[in-house]
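As a warm-up, study this chain.
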Amino acid sequence: MRYAVPVAVAGVAAATISLVPALADSGNPDLPKITAEQLLTKIAASDTQTISGSVKITTNLGLPSFLGGATGGGSPFGGAGGDDSGKGRKGSGSAADPKAQLTQLLAGSHTLHVAADGPDKQRVSIVEKAAEYSLIHNGDQVWAYDSASNQAYHSTVPRSGTAGTDRKQLPKDFPSTPQAAAQQALKAAGPNTSVSVDGTAKVAGRNAYQLLVQPKGGDSTVGAIRVAVDASTGVPLKFTLTPRTGGKAAIDIGFTKVDFGKPAESTFRFTPPKGAKVTEDTADGSARDDRAAEAGKSGLEGLDGLNILGAEWNSIAEIKVPKGALPGSDSGEQSGRHGRNDKAVQGLIDSFGKDVTGKFGSGKIFSTRLVNALITDNGTVYVGAVNQDALVRAADAAAG
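Now compare it with the structure written out below.
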């Protein structure tokens, strides 16, 4: 939480991305009529456990240019773990660490190769012109490999069938299967949501129904979510989220090729290449996951001082940032080895933020097309897919 604006905005944006799979073929197939309730039931009843294919992700959140630099790293994927030489920065960990690498999905277009064989075997590879980054989950083993730096990252997690450890699997926002992605998105479909079937489409050569999900009123910045659902299997194939302000989709993710056959067993095997630098995750997984479970269901598990205000589309994350963690906070001077850095970041924050005042005091609003954040001068961050007025009201209410 040292640089609150990029971290807070990116954190919620990443949680939003976890809602998903865009790229629909032209054509509107003639399919039997179906109600929204029947289509939701079809999604829930889908028992497809094997899948592979190519996914294109395009994210247009309107993030400021300096946010891309917050991830750092010399990898073409912008990971925070390493420099151009492939030798990780001091204290920054491995260039292959998923927490660093997956932030690249917050901007631009990316091609992913995905495969899954049940809850214990998944593989996601992010393919770029010069390199490839792969994340492989096989049983209790998790490997990640960044070809640009020739670095690998290894972790051990409990198997999904282990008694009492179901919650201790890969993060909920792990981009493994589109089924899990769409199901998470549909959790927001409460009383303040309109759900309907809006025609048909062709996605990756498959016939699909289009499910349209829209918030009713409120302060949400989400205009509509459209999910293309495979007519035969009930598997979501495409996910498009459009902001209330209109324009291009903020998140557009979907299959360009898809196969429901069982992937080859070799897909989920990994051995570090010769000469690769391997970083072992030595954290206490049990303690880490216990903290995550206590933090709630928002997709922001593990953050200290996190409180979720409101519900459904109007949810706002309130994050209490420790004194001294924010550049220019009322904690006093920016001293020590980070002082110079803090001043530089503070300058960027000042130029990008909009000054606001209220019962809470004063602070700055930071806006994207989908996610807005308010950081108060006393070091509290309010962030969510809601409009700016909602953030100010939340801060005022917290101030009493």
